[in-house]
């Protein structure tokens, strides 16, 4: 395990910077919103700086945790402040760090209590960072719950017409799921204590422990999985997502689709998998099935939506299906693909939400049928949406393809028929996205659509980096895969050692170049 | 500089048009009309020149060493799969890049004039260059995955170009249909790749060449058939052909370049490239040949009665592609390639010619409203006429040698049913192409408002009004469906021939259509193409005639049948149409004609199914199942708890209180646990 880089705790800096920024913003007088904006942007930019620093020093070829900090907290309770980063969390940190400044930039037009908005937005960033970095189950849970608060206020304070309903639904649904998570985490720690005499919530210790009976493992696994399945979301737990997406402000949607949805998948990768490998193998077919249902069902329902944001929300359900599919294929290809899609999806779907947000700012509606012929009046805006569309439906050269291809490849090697059904998602994805594009952007514009302003430089600057990055890692995924794959290989090795998983010959595991497996 | 050093730089071929596309997308407006067109054409021309260099570089190598892989960088390296962004230059791919850049340059040149004045002129050429890039990557790719990249890329460009006039609802619908239908095929392509990784551990063509023979027959069959599903989509074979006729909504140069000469031949390319899998399977070859033959015949029947100049050509393309698959399916790969080349020349001529006709008749596409145009557009008439004689298979034009090669290969391999189907399709080709040529260029002039109409004030008024709406309504598509009543003729003045940049490509392509036959003559020592392609396809020759006499006899039979079709159509249409609204073939074919005209009701049937029950089911899923049952269930559970005191309704009223409650719940849980721990300890 490598320690803090350059003598200072970079991971703590990543968590604490946005929170400090938020506190600073709180001190700004309400009549100086531009100051709040500047501080907010600088705090999130500084966080991005720290994140990039970490990325720079992140070792490739190392599968375990890096930059680990371990501080005592409530020693008597076995609770510590433990943070660390590995291939699964690395790019979630980067994505979060990139999307928040962009989200702030996209929120430049918010006039209603901007100070409070920025405050909650930065608090949200800090909480999300904590979720992805915590290696202590209680620490993880605290951040997991803490994230709900800013999200609740952002939706309820700056959402559209039905915002309170959506905010409450989001809060209660997620909190209900996390109750199971907490209970299962506590039981796990007790059992570990009963077995070894040590009370700890250190994820690394618990993952290394093999004293669980198989039936207990199954129960605890489901305790964790309920929370993650709601968050991911897996069909049939997905119905909060479209409501929240439609009501959330643009930046909220971007962050929601970009990183909050990934928390479920991340939870499965980090906790579901390594704490309960045997249960993961036993129930893989169930979750593969749910993933496939998510892909097909999400696409069909997406196609029928009349609201642009709802449509993209359902498309996220389908994309999450590809991620879950890759994860539960328990193969090198599949996990590579899932982790890669977790990087790619924020870029493409984030862009789509940003452009829909621009359309909403101009027309104050998200009703697909209210638009038409935008290509003629706003060609630059249309170009952004068009590129994001094709990046999202997995056109090769964009990142979406690499992730989908690897997820499906891994699934095909291990569970052929699931992959075959899931591959229909590439057809369905084209159907709902192109159909929406046709209705919104083609034809001859009339009325307000004809006089719509094209994208200005700020709007271009917000979206283009995301699409450019999607293109870059689509054409050259090596920098991303090099950092993800060692962790993936370590995880697959764990499965080979701890379970009787039958692994396909096509997906060969070679850990000779991987160091630091836990 | 050795030949291999040169071949290492084969990436220049796709890079040139890519540069053009990027420049035109970023600065196209500043470059303007027509400079943007010339720039794009120049990029294609340079790519062609470089392709010729590649040809000579390859020729300078000994024939058994004519295969060169040049890797640019590692594209995808995950697990034990490694795919390079690399290009494979061998006789097959170099033949194809010569075709794409050569014919592509001429069509680019043509489009400079055709698209002149369009408000999105630079964007058109950006897409056009991008298309060429994708197609070149498709054929030059050194692995299935890179070919797939190009494969999807041409799908994207096809989408953009079919829907180029996005103001027209028909065009934008057609573009979506094209992309989605192609994706159905891509579904097969993707699963085939999953199989290949499983069987070979690699997607490289070199790995296929070494390993395909050693895999099980059933795996080979699965791979080959799934790949062929991709080909059915891309090359519009029966089942997934529905997008190609609609693709005619794009500007005519697009129809010529993408939907006739190049993109649609990608399926034939893929079968040729992946031939080791098809051969290992055996069954898959039969499927390819059968689908090809049936497509040739059925598409031919549909072309018989279409009233739209481009629709006839579109179905003709589907039918001709069927011949190419028939050739590949009976193992005559070099004949298939030869057919692709010959077809590219004459079909591009026909499409560009029809573009000039449409251009010169104020956007008329209804052949019932043309007639006698050879007087007004002599050059186009000559080019179109040559292409007509070529496609119907008259010697010594290239079309004759190509079709003869296919039929002979089927016959001497013993596939008599397929051979008979091919012959029947040849009759149909003779008929529909003669019908179109006669109705457009020969006979009475039907494009002017008739005297009776002109005399009748009301009619003249209506005609004038139509003229105005036709020229001003940017949402209207000039496409004419079968069964659509004839619109009043509206030409105010005489039709005119195209500009020099439009005539030149037509004449050059027509010339190529005449002479291309010398590439592959069915005589010993004159089968140049077969020899050239031998490094790719190996020594496996197509079945050959047992004697000169039997070969000659077969050829003459095919020609005689083709001529029968020509003569019948010639008699019917030589003088044009007495009544433009009454096409004699409709009366002759009766019900059968309606069946053909509606393309066997296949497309319409799908539309009914998708628009009706499928849509209702999806609507029910989204509105009832998802919202009422699933979401209703979730809210129901919440309401249940709400009854206990903390329901949704109450939660909606207070902000801070509720959030505090949530946190409190969590804290209480922790507290209880702590107390319990202490108690236990």
Which structural traits does this protein have?
heterodimer; A: 518 residues; two-stranded antiparallel ribbon; 2 strands; B: mainly alpha; 29 helices
The SS-based structural class of chain A is mainly alpha
Let me know the average pLDDT of chain A: 92
Q: Which parts of chain A are unreliable, with pLDDT below 50 for 5 consecutive residues or more?
A: none
Shape of chain A: globular
Order of helices and strands of chain A: HHEEHHHHHHHHHHHHHHHHHH
N- and C-termini, Cα separation of chain B: 83 Å
Calculate Rg of chain A over CA atoms. Answer: 22 Å
* Number of E-type strands of chain B: 2
| Biggest interchain interface, per-side counts | A-B, 80 and 68 residues
Overall outline of chain B: globular
The largest sheet of chain B, given as strand count, sense and whether it forms a barrel, is: 2 strands, antiparallel
Can you tell me the residue ranges of chain B where pLDDT is under 50 for at least 5 consecutive residues? 454-470
The assigned structural class of chain B equals: mainly alpha
Q: DSSP helix count of chain A?
A: 20
Oligomer category:
heterodimer
How do the strands and helices of this protein lay out in sequence?
The complex is a heterodimer of chains A (518) and B (681).
Chain A: H1 10-27, H2 33-57, E1 66-74, E2 79-85, H3 87-106, H4 114-133, H5 137-146, H6 148-158, H7 163-196, H8 203-208, H9 214-231, H10 240-247, H11 250-275, H12 277-303, H13 308-328, H14 332-363, H15 374-377, H16 379-392, H17 399-414, H18 416-441, H19 457-475, H20 478-498
Antiparallel strand pairs in A: 1-2
Chain B: H1 3-8, H2 12-31, H3 35-59, E1 68-78, E2 81-89, H4 91-114, H5 121-140, H6 144-162, H7 169-200, H8 205-211, H9 217-234, H10 243-246, H11 252-261, H12 266-273, H13 275-281, H14 283-303, H15 309-329, H16 333-360, H17 378-391, H18 398-412, H19 416-441, H20 451-455, H21 457-472, H22 500-515, H23 528-537, H24 548-573, H25 584-589, H26 591-597, H27 602-646, H28 648-651, H29 656-680
Antiparallel strand pairs in B: 1-2
Helix pairs in contact in B: 2-3, 2-5, 3-4, 3-5, 4-5, 4-11, 4-16, 4-22, 5-6, 6-7, 6-11, 7-9, 9-12, 9-13, 9-14, 11-16, 14-15, 14-19, 15-16, 15-18, 15-19, 16-17, 16-18, 16-22, 16-23, 17-19, 17-22, 18-19, 18-24, 19-24
